[in-house]
Design brief:
Number of domains: 2
CATH superfamily of the largest domain: Lrp/AsnC effector binding domain/regulation of amino acid metabolism (RAM) domain
CATH topology of the largest domain: Alpha-Beta Plaits
Number of helices: 5
InterPro entries: ArsR-like_HTH, AsnC-type_HTH_dom, Dimeric_a/b-barrel, Tscrpt_reg_AsnC-like, Tscrpt_reg_AsnC/Lrp_C, Tscrpt_reg_HTH_AsnC-type_CS, WH-like_DNA-bd_sf, WH_DNA-bd_sf
Keywords: DNA-binding, Transcription, Transcription regulation
Order of helices and strands: HHHEHEEHE
Strand content: 15-25%
Pfam family, one: AsnC_trans_reg
Oligomer: single chain
Number of strands: 4
GO molecular function: sequence-specific DNA binding
Protein name: Leucine-responsive regulatory protein
Helix content: 25-40%
CATH architecture of the largest domain: 2-Layer Sandwich
CATH class of the largest domain: Alpha Beta
C-alpha cells in the first residue's frame, strides 16, 4: 500500500521519532493541526507500514552493558543452509543489536552489546560453536559519539 506523505505527515513523524510518548494534543499543537486529524494521519501511516512497533530506548551503560563491540565476519560458506543457520544463530543471541550483510571484503558486521570483555568472549565462543566462520575481528568501541534512531525527514 503506497501512501502519499505531505509536510504535516513528515512533521508528525519527526515528533514521534523525538518522543513517541507525547500526547496527541502536544503533537497536534507542534505540527499546527488538531488531535483527530493527527490521529487519522498516524493511523494511516501505521497501516501503510511506515511505522513499526513503539519501543523505549534504554541506556545500555546505566543497565550495566558497558561494552559495545563491532564484529566483522568473513566466511567462506555461502550455501543457503549455512546462511539459514547463521541468521538463526544471530537472531537467537540477544547481545546482537544489529546485523548487516555487506558488499566487499567483509561479509557481515554485527553490533554487539555486552557487560564486559568476558561476556563478549562467551558470546564469541557460543557463536563459533554454532556456525563455521572463516575469520572474526572484534572492534571495541571506546566512545559512542552519536547514536540515533531518527531519520532525517
Amino acid at each position: 500500500m503506497s501512501v502519499r506523505m505531505d509536510q504535516t505527515d513528515r512533521k508528525i513523524l519527526m515528533e514521534l521519532q523525538r518522543d513517541a510518548g507525547q500526547s496527541l494534543d502536544e503533537i497536534a499543537r507542534k505540527v499546527g493541526s488538531s488531535k483527530t486529524p493527527v490521529w487519522n494521519r498516524i493511523r494511516k501511516m501505521r497501516d501503510a507500514g511506515i511505522m513499526g512497533p513503539q519501543t523505549v530506548v534504554l541506556d545500555a551503560e546505566k543497565l550495566g552493558f558497558e561494552a559495545c563491540f563491532f564484529v566483522l565476519i568473513r566466511t567462506s560458506e555461502h550455501e543457503a543452509d549455512w546462511q539459514v543457520k547463521f541468521l538463526q544463530a544471530l537472531r537467537n543471541r540477544p547481545e546482537v543489536m544489529e546485523a548487516h550483510r555487506l558488499a566487499g571484503d567483509i561479509d557481515y558486521i554485527l553490533k554487539v552489546r555486552v557487560k564486559n570483555a568476558r561476556a563478549y568472549d562467551a558470546f564469541y565462543q557460543a557463536l563459533i560453536s554454532e556456525v563455521k566462520v572463516n575469520n572474526i575481528t572484534a572492534l571495541l568501541s571506546m566512545e559512542e559519539i552519536k547514536s540515533t534512531t531518527e531519520l532525517p525527514l
